Every structure is written in C-alpha cells, then in structure tokens.
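Protein fold
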Amino acid sequence: MAHARKTGYEGFEIAPFTMGKYVTDVPPGERRRVRDLAKQHGLVLTGIHWVLVGADGMYLTSPEPEIRRKTSDYFVELVHFCADLGGQVVVLGSPKQRSLLPGVTMEQAWEWATDCLRPAVKTAEDRGVTVCFEPLAPMETNFVNRAEDAIRFAHQFQSPNMKIILDVKAMCGETKPIPQIIRESKGEFVYFHANDRNLKGPGFGDTDFVPIAAALREVGYNGWVSVEVFKFEEGAEIIATRSLEYLRRVFQEPAV
C-alpha cells in the first residue's frame, strides 16, 4: 500500500485469495485491519476481483442445484467481504466457474447464473456495493463474451447495484473497436480495467490507449481506471510505475 501511494495511485483492488482460501475464513478483525491500513495510507479500496480463485466448489452455471446454491451463498459472502473492507465493487469475471459444462445450453446457463446472483445483488443494494459482471473473450469463456450481452444480463436484475465492467484486454476479443464499445456501453459500466492485449500493463504492448481515454471522456465516465495485469516478469514496482506514467500521459493527449 505504501508503494502504491508513493507511486501515485489513489486506490487499489484486493483479490480475496490473497487473504484466505474462502472469504468466510477472513475474520472481522482482519477485515478492519486492512480497511484501516488503506485509510492510513490515503488509499481507497476500490473493490475485489478474481473472486473465485482458490474458492473450490463454486460454479455459476453448474447443472447441480446444490453447487449453484453454494455458489449463490458465497457471492453473498463476497459482497459482505467487499463492504467490510470499505470496497465499492465486486468484479465478477470468473471464466472458469461460468463456462458451459457438457450438456448445458446457453438458455439454461443464463437462467441459472441469473438466479444464482439474485441474492448477492439484493445484498449489494443493502451494503452499498455494486456487482460488476465482466464480458470476457471467447478464449477465456463461452458465457457472455460481448459487452452488449453483459448489459442485457445485468438489466435483468433491474438494480442500480448490478452493472458491468469493461476490460481492455477482454474488449480486444470483440470485433468492434474498443472506443465504439465504450460509447455503446455509456451509463452501463461503472468500473474499468486497463491492460494490454498481451496480458501486461497499459503501455507494455501495442494497444493504443489514446482513443480509449478519449472515448471514456466522451461518455462522461468518472469512475476508476484500474491497472490489472496477468504477466509479472518486470516485477510489481516497475509494472505499477510504468503503467501509471503511461495512463497519465494518454489521458492528457487528444485523440487523433
């Protein structure tokens, strides 16, 4: 946290598996300690992501009712965990726990995932947290790949606490240009992940963020832009520093 603040970041996300196998293993005192540490360092804990990593036995679209019930209950716990930390969003990617299993149709998966998340969305309304469903590229999952489908999924809940997140790496898997996706998703996304198609930080590859930043300004987006990476060869400090330097620069440049 100290390095993030010194580097110039104003907020950060937590992956629950870094604090325990299941969030139910993390006691109230530890949650308060992390929340207080963030405040001491002048940081906002924006939310949680990678929420089912390590949490064995969870599956949003399982044909087994008991597994879906267990997963539904766990998502409620994830919302409580996020709120207890002072977080704002639960980023729901979890491609390995939502892809269609053999014999499951898209219609079944859609219905099961919707029913699975309803209690969590209701809890999010009560706790002041937003669940952000993430469209992901076909190489990661076969369930909800396009932003427009994620918006349609989120609309079913008729709740201001169920929205979507846009992720640059994921949007690289769509046929539409990223700025177009951003414009068409205006008002529907409340969180934004900045990364390169090469799974590294922004500025570490060939993805041009200047038109992306321009589109975010155009739609009036005023939420978080969060650096999320999947390859760490350069080391956390170099990744954090260079990513932020690049983002600061491109958000100041006009689109060409």
Q: What stands out?
A: The chain is about 40% helix and 10% strand. The CA atoms of residues 76 and 120 lie 4 Å apart.
